[in-house]
C-alpha cells in the first residue's frame, strides 16, 4: 500500500502551480502510489485575494477544483489536496477556510477538512508577523475518512502544535494522518521534525507531511523537509528543499503489532471532545 507526499515551491500563478503538481502526481502514480498528499497552498502561494479565488471555485468558475477531479480520475489516484481557500459549503460569499479536500480515484470529493488552528504568530524572519485569521475563518470539526490504504485523519500545518487534535483523530480510528504544511524556515528549523515525529509516535499512525520548501512571493521562505513518518516515529523518507515526490509503503502488520505491544490508546485517561465528521463515502 504505497503512500506519496509531494513537496512544492508554489508561486502565485495558479495554472503554473497546477502543471507542477500534475507532473509530480504523475510520477507518484507511475511508481505505484495509491494515495498522494499535496502541500498547503499547493495551487497558489501569496495570492493577493484568497476570498475571490475561493468564491470563484465555489461558483464553478475556477480552475482548481475541476483540475483536482480530472487529475484524480485520470491518474486513478486518491489525492489529499493540500489546502485551498474555499468558503463554507453552500455559502460562496462566506469568509474562506483553509480547506483540505480528499478526492478518490474516480475524481469524487470524499471529505473536506477546514483547518482548525490558524497561524496568528510573530516569527523572527523577514516578515516578522503572520495573521492567517485576516484572510481565513477557522474550522471546528475533526475529519476522518476510509481510503484504500487505511483510515485517514486530516490535519493542516499549524495543527501539528496541538496534540489533542491528533489524539482525537486516533480515537476516531485514524491509521494515517495527512499534514499538508508550509512551515516558515525559522519555525521549521526549530520544531518541524520534532512535531511530525511526536504526532506519529503518540498516535501510532503514519504521518504524511507534505511541505512547501523554498522561496515564495514577497520573500517568504518555507522550511520544506517533507517526510513520511511511520508509527514508531522513524522517518521513512525526507526531502530538504525544492520540488520532489517521496514514496513509502504502509506495513499494516507492523503497525498493528506496534499498537498491540504498546496499547497507548487503551491507557489514555484524558480526552478532549471534538465534533466528528466522516468522509462522504461512509
TrEMBL record:
<protein>
    <submittedName>
        <fullName>Carbon-nitrogen hydrolase family protein</fullName>
    </submittedName>
</protein>
<dbReference type="Pfam" id="PF00795">
    <property type="entry name" value="CN_hydrolase"/>
</dbReference>
<comment type="similarity">
    <text>Belongs to the carbon-nitrogen hydrolase superfamily. NIT1/NIT2 family.</text>
</comment>
<dbReference type="InterPro" id="IPR001110">
    <property type="entry name" value="UPF0012_CS"/>
</dbReference>
<feature type="domain" description="CN hydrolase">
    <location>
        <begin position="1"/>
        <end position="252"/>
    </location>
</feature>
<dbReference type="GO" id="GO:0016787">
    <property type="term" value="F:hydrolase activity"/>
</dbReference>
<dbReference type="InterPro" id="IPR036526">
    <property type="entry name" value="C-N_Hydrolase_sf"/>
</dbReference>
<dbReference type="InterPro" id="IPR003010">
    <property type="entry name" value="C-N_Hydrolase"/>
</dbReference>
<keyword id="KW-0378">Hydrolase</keyword>
<dbReference type="InterPro" id="IPR045254">
    <property type="entry name" value="Nit1/2_C-N_Hydrolase"/>
</dbReference>
